[in-house]
Design goal:
333 residues; alpha/beta; seven-stranded mixed β-sheet; six-stranded mixed β-sheet; 11 helices; 13 strands; elongated; binds alpha-L-arabinofuranose
Length: 333
């Protein structure tokens, strides 16, 4: 299990406003600690767009089992915010004990989360951020996506320095994830905040590939038709990277270490790490999907009425050909 980092920055560390229900429980919803009954959790997942997402769902399912005292109700929103809102409303009407969800995009959650608050059901955000007042959710379990974008740019600086290309003109295209999602917004912002410090880095284009291989390939084909001299592809997840590499190779070019185009990817799923090892992806910035155990930890704290931090962030690494071998074997997704 990766280490959980507790963030206690200004004003974000205190759990308030939402407290576990004690006295107004409907029958049958009592806590496992009290009388052996199950804790009911309604979970709205975005979909199954990527290997990462499937691993994230599996992590939640492994953590919230009947043996551990949970009754998990899951819904796959198939990439639609309206489906997530529908699922959350149905959890409210079923009077679940907790609602967990990963918001597909940042905006548009106020009304439904106010409904959850009014029903007294604590909401836990997982993976992505919702742009709402923080009183509307109990806590957040996530990755530091801005930092992931920054790490990508810092790696590029180092690589160009090693190759004595720090002052060359560098043409960059960006395959973005789902537009408006915190993963896309923050990875873009993190990378571009450092890119802006380099007058010779030119971001030629950025288009969404929706975090999928098919769309990643399609967008990369378009980039290759439009721009003759691409030096770097920043692909905001591994699934899009697989599609981009296919498109680049079909165009007769090579990728990775010593190749025509530098590939920067995110997630670090097993199949991508194999490509890092093979030198086809230069660097993979990890986004850690193993968030289920932290969910369990947070729910147990709520059950005991303990204070929570407002944000829990999971730890993440950066993989290149130099360090990847030691991690490949233990990668399960
Ligand atoms: O929100 C996390 C992102 O969503 C992952 O990078 C991506 O693969 C997933 O679909």
């Amino acid at each position: 299990m990766a280490t959980l980092l507790l963030l206690t920055q200004g004003g974000c560390g205190v759990f308030r406003d939402i407290v576990p229900r004690e006295t107004d429980e409907p029958e049958g919803h009592a806590r496992i600690q009290d009388n052996g009954e199950l804790i009911i959790v309604g979970f709205s997942q975005i979909g199954s767009e990527s290997i990462w997402r499937t691993a994230n769902t599996a992590s939640v399912e492994r953590a919230l089992t009947k043996e551990k005292g949970y009754f998990l109700i899951s819904d796959n929103a198939r990439q639609k915010q309206e489906n997530q809102i529908k699922a959350i409303r149905s959890y409210i009407s079923q009077r679940v004990d907790y609602i967990v969800f990963s918001p597909i995009t940042e905006d548009g959650w106020d009304t439904v989360l106010e409904e959850a608050r009014d029903a007294g059901i604590p909401v836990i955000l997982m993976d992505r951020m919702a742009n709402v007042d923080e009183s509307l959710y109990a806590t957040r379990i996530c990755t530091d996506v801005t930092k992931e974008g920054e790490k990508a740019a810092r790696w590029l600086e180092g690589d160009l320095k090693e190759k004595n290309r720090l002052h060359d003109d560098i043409n960059i295209v960006v395959l973005q994830g789902t537009l408006g999602s915190s993963s896309e917004l923050e990875r873009t912002a993190g990378f571009e905040s450092i890119a802006a410090q380099h007058g010779n880095w030119h971001i030629l284009d950025r288009q969404t590939g929706d975090f999928t291989t098919a769309k990643g390939k399609e967008v990369m084909e378009q980039f290759l038709k439009t721009y003759a001299d691409i030096d770097v592809v920043v692909s905001q997840n591994d699934d899009m990277t697989f599609g981009a590499i296919e498109a680049i190779e079909e165009a007769g070019l090579t990728t990775g270490v010593g190749g025509d185009i530098i590939i920067i990817s995110f997630d670090a799923v097993r199949d991508a790490l194999k490509l890092v090892q093979a030198g086809k992806i230069n660097v993979d910035i990890e986004c850690n999907p193993e968030q289920g155990e932290y969910l369990d930890m947070v729910i147990q704290k709520l059950e005991r009425g303990e204070p929570l931090e407002k944000v829990y962030m999971v730890e993440e690494m950066v993989f290149t050909q130099r360090n990847v071998s030691g991690y490949l074997e233990s990668r399960t997704y």
